[in-house]
Amino acid sequence: MHIVLVHGAWHTASCWKQILKGLQTLGTVHAINMPGRIFENSSTYKRLTLNDYVTTLENYLKSIGEPCIVIGHSLAGLTISQVAENQPHLIKQLIYIAAFIPQSDECLFDIAATISNPGISTEAISYPALNKIEIKRSDRAKSLIYNSCPPLIAEKELQSMIPEPLKAFSTKIKFLSPEGFGSVAKAYVKCLDDRVLLPYDQERMIQRGNVSRVYELKTDHCPFHGHPEALVEVLKQSIQTIL
């Protein structure tokens, strides 16, 4: 069995380091980088959108050649949802971790406009001409994203966050149908101490995605840093339901 981990905004595949180790008893585990992980002020970077993330993940799954467990964090909820619509035969189960679940013709900015708090938007700085959005290295940002992480880990991870292509937030999902996205099994890890996407809003994501299995963790938005062992356990529970 193959398990594919997809990071969220401002992160890289390295965020899954401890999760990779924990899931290896279940099969082959892959953590992949989305385009733009190394910021370059170039024409290539300026063109990046969420569609490039979708293509990257689709091609990776095709290279594996069998249905995979696909796990996505935060922004990656949009990517994995669109891939499930486009290539449902390549996915055995989607698992969302404190993730945004879109509907047809929605982008992340559309969803963010409907959530019950401003989330991390107050700590984000956009540079449209560069197609770049980055997070301030502020105490408030740290308290929003890593509020249940040990202080030293929280500070280290905040400093390591990288710029994200801005168009990844404004690219609209094309279409999600019952026959495509709707046919794929889904689970959701709800993070109860999340200050980026509040539990109330995570519940809305669960309902709009018609998610069948929900697991709860008393963690912040990034449990792979603060509570990796607990996250591994619920991921194992979810994966074992379809074995």
From TrEMBL:
Q: What class of enzyme is it?
A: hydrolase
Q: Hydrolase as a keyword?
A: yes
- Residues covered by the AB hydrolase-1 domain: 3-233
Matching InterPro entries: AB_hydrolase_1 (IPR000073), AB_hydrolase_fold (IPR029058), MES/HNL (IPR045889)
Highest taxon of source? Bacteria
Q: Which UniProt keywords apply?
A: Hydrolase
Q: What is its EC number?
A: 3.1.1.88
Q: Which GO terms describe its molecular function?
A: methyl indole-3-acetate esterase activity; methyl jasmonate esterase activity; trans-permethrin hydrolase activity
Protein name as catalogued: Alpha/beta fold hydrolase
